[in-house]
Amino acid sequence: MDFGIPTFIGKTLEECAAHCQQLGLQFVEVSMDFPEYQPERINVDRFAEIAEKYGIYYTLHLEGALNPWEINDRAPAAYTETVLDTVDIAKKLSIPILNMHFHKGDFITLPDRKVCLYEQYPEEFRRKLTAFREANEGDFPV
């Protein structure tokens, strides 16, 4: 079993990798919630250099707000593109693990109860979830 550390706020990737090595750990979990770790900002060559220099590897933690089955029809395309771009980065860097939270959806508070939009509109939810699953099918398991 391997152990690692998360990326730290206010520290560079190289500082995190050096700390990981000093602790005798094997990987840095890169949080894509941070601006510097958005797919379009990741320099694959630099990531590879740092991993080699410190003898570590990476895992990726997709941003917490990522919701490819969002009710708004425009949002899922952007979220899905982000995931596919991340999968491409993971392939280039031989990243073995991508973590993603399953977004629970929005809740509407009524006087007597809370209603989950996904439960209220199950066909809409299933349609979006299926579209995400089938996006570039074969590129990543769901």
Q: What's this, in brief?
A:
By secondary structure, this protein is of the alpha/beta class. The chain is built from five helices and six strands, in the order βαβαβαβββαα.
Question: Can you walk through the features of this model?
Answer:
The protein contains five helices and six strands, in the order E-H-E-H-E-H-E-E-E-H-H. 39% of the residues lie in helices and 15% in strands. It is of the alpha/beta class. The longest helix is centred in the middle third of the chain and has 18 residues, at 75-92. It has a four-stranded parallel beta sheet with strand order 1-2-3-4. A two-stranded antiparallel sheet has the order 5-6.
Number of helices: 5
Structural class: alpha/beta
Give, in spatial order, the strands making up the sheet with the most strands. 1-2-3-4
Overall mean pLDDT score?
A: 92
Which percent bin holds the helix content?
25-40%
- How many strands? 6
- The topology string of helices and strands comes to EHEHEHEEEHH
Terminal CA distance: 23 Å
Largest sheet: 4 strands, parallel
Q: Would you identify the regions where 5 or more consecutive residues have pLDDT less than 50? A: none
Task: Give the overall shape.
Answer: elongated
Strand content: 5-15%
Radius of gyration: 18 Å
